Amino acid sequence: MRVFVTGATGVLGTRLVERLADRGHDVYGLVRDDEGADRVESRGGIPRRGDVLDRRSLERAVPNVEVLVHAATSIPTATRPSEADWERNDRVRVDGIRNLVGVAGEGVDRVLFPSVVWVARQPDGSPFDESAKRSPDRTTRSAAAVEDFLRERRSAFGFEAAILRCGFFYAPDSAHTRQFGRSVLAGRLPILGRGLLGREDARLSFLHAEDAAHAFAEAIETEVGGLYHVVDDRPTTFAEFLTELADELGAPPPRRLPAWLARPVLGGETTALLTEPMPTTNDRFRDATGWEPAYPTYRDGLRQVVERWAEDGTLRETPEGYRWNEGRTAATA
């Protein structure tokens, strides 16, 4: 197949370009500079210059393809994101999909979008599936808007839409995962919990970025449409995730901190992401495609993350244990 991927140099996009190219597909990756072009080419893709926020550039960049994947985001990585940070992400997601479909929507068979499962987290914290009513907040508003746009426009343009709501991404080159690792080693990242003393933990749904790319490749090849949740096999708490990361790094167990104390520092959005439940399953997607995660639990995935950091020099081994190499930039696993 011929596939066009926005966000082709990101955590998901880079892996998807490589996976599809390895399977023999013609993969075009949207890039903005020479560094991005080199990255796409090194993964077997064909770079195309443009910007999702510049419709005229997309008219030149998007070739005749069968599948569009809108994986471009600008998710904030600041400890306390500003409104401007979130607005930038909104534009990349929402204006980006409008420009992309406006330029190429009539000529493609399918459009795929990586949404997030916590757009449908339930106010009472109960498990939910694809049929659950959404409850978007500031962090998920744009994901919900893209979901709505694709549902509204698929009939008018004649394409099938596949919305894959993913769990909380982690990977060796993910900015948030790297922030977690650096802070855990430094003893600066606490376990956030609800309640007066911070002892109440919420179950979250995670997903290794390699498994996300695998899921999109399977969705493309099996030609599924509709809405699916793509997460690993077992929801876990932030406490378990962070404690396991500390164990893998040989760092002391993180201390606990009530979410209400962290909120003034982290902001409401980040605090809610880590402390409000979002337990769901991959059952529907697995049944539809046969996909299975290579990292079925956070333990499997975090082991790979730390091994990769040790291999690429992100971690420096000393007699006292691992130290974070501040001069090392992220390398895709």
UniProtKB/TrEMBL annotation:
Domain NAD-dependent epimerase/dehydratase span(s) in chain numbering: 3-222
GO terms for MF: aldehyde dehydrogenase (NAD+) activity
GO (cellular component) term, any one: cytoplasm
Source organism, top-level taxon: Archaea
Gene3D superfamilies xrefs: NAD(P)-binding Rossmann-like Domain
Name of the protein in its database record: Nucleoside-diphosphate-sugar epimerase
Originating organism: Natronobacterium haloterrestre
Organism ancestry: Archaea, Methanobacteriati, Methanobacteriota, Stenosarchaea group, Halobacteria
